[in-house]
Each structure stands twice: as structure tokens, then as C-alpha cells.
Amino acid sequence: FKVSPRVIIALAKVALFLLGEGRGEHPVPIKGIGTEYADTREYVPGDTLHYIDWKATARYGKIMVKEFFQEIGQGTHLIYDIRATGPLSQDKLATNFLNTCLGAAEQGYPIGVTIHNGERVLLHSTQENPRDVLKIVMGYILKSMRVDLEDIDRLIEPFAPFQLRSFLNKLKEDSVRKILELEVKILQERLKQPYRFLVQFSRKINDQKQFLLISQLSDDVVELLQFAEDIQSHHQLIIIQPTEPWRETENLEEAYRWYEREKKIIDTLTRHKVQVVKQLISG
Asked: Which residues form the DUF58 domain (predicted)?
């Protein structure tokens, strides 16, 4: 299918960032789990109640929690589950993946990525240099989705179309090599068990890391809960689910089943202290 404009705009933003210079090289503090106070915001289901701001709660009449700057050394690992019910959902997932990667890269924040389809790990990188990771993920999106480069050309100025096209084509070529090499040596059988591989990977990380799972939540809720429990035993997990799969069904009965399924999964995850949000980065 031909991708919707949403992901084209995200790709254009990433291309502008990568064609620029001097950004994303030096990390700056971002909010997360840490010790230095950042600000106070309204409670979101899944937040720990250990950090309630009681004064703000009394003032505003609703639960408010404190946020802290995350220590830079912790890093973030993005997990992108590409499974989607249709083109609109795929577009939203890809867009959120790109925007989240870009948000981290703009801050110079160390990141890694894993892309999978539920059955196989398609790409796994622990590169951590945000600009390098951004090139890898942009190359993957360009290669895996039917992106018309002219659509990006029209959105970007003042770069000449030839310069931009050359840059984007190079990303696509580099991505093929990166995917084949997978950046790290992992056993073939582990490629077929994405969540088990990710849990094993997380256990090898000594410092606490933030894991962000971008997914339509296609798996059974028991499997998702087990994965969340394993990750959260040592790290932080946030699930980003930006799609509305019931809008891509053929009839009302199927739409209702999808709506109830997604609601049940999110409610169950929330009850088990797993944070699920629509998006982290606007755009």
C-alpha cells in the first residue's frame, strides 16, 4: 500500500535533523526515573504511587505525581512491533516509532532499537549513538514501506532535491546491510522468539534502562503481562499503542470485537501497573 502523509512528515523531520549539524551530539537531561526533581504532572495509570506530590494533589483536587530527570547513562531501548490490522494502523505505528526515535536523538540520548513482527526479530541494534540509530531506523522504514521520495522532497527546503535524494538512497542501502548483519551476533533460533530474546537481552544490562514498546498489542494478554513483568523486574517499561484497529474492520461486529479486545488488554495491563499511552512525542 502507499503510506499515508503522517509517516512522510515524520520521515521529512528525521531527514532534516540528519542533514543538519551540531544537534544530537551531546545528551541533555530528560524526564524519567532518577534523583533530580524535574516537575509535577497529573497521574497517569501505571505511574508509581511512591512519587505523589501531596501539595499539588491538594491544590488541584486530583492526583499529581513528581517527575525526575533520568540519568543519562541509563538509556532507552525502543521495541517496534510492526504488526498492524491495516495501512492506517501501520502508518500510526511507524510514525510514532520515528517520532520517538527523533525525540531521543534530538536530546543526544543513548538509544537502542529492536524491530520484530511477533515471530522474528527483523533488526536489533545496540549502537546507542542517537544519530547512527536514527539513520538505521529511517533506512528500515524507507526500505520496508512504499515511500515515494518525491513526497519527502516537496516537504523539505532549502536542501536541493538531488542532495536529499542521494542522502535517502544511501540510507536505504546502508539499512539493507545493517539488517543482514543485525549489528550483534545472535543465534538463529532466538530470532524466532522476539520477546524471549528481549528479556534475555534486558537481563544482561546492569544499569536500569527504559524500554519503550510501540505496538498494536497483537499478542495474548498473558504473554504481554509476562513480558512486562520480566522487563519491569529490572527496568522501566512504557507501552505506546497509538492505533484504533476497530476503524479498519469490514463490519460493525468485527469492529466491536476489536474495540472490546483492546480495551480489555489495556485495562488488564493498567491493573498490573504497566503504563500504556497513546504517544510520547507529539507530531
From this structure: 39-85
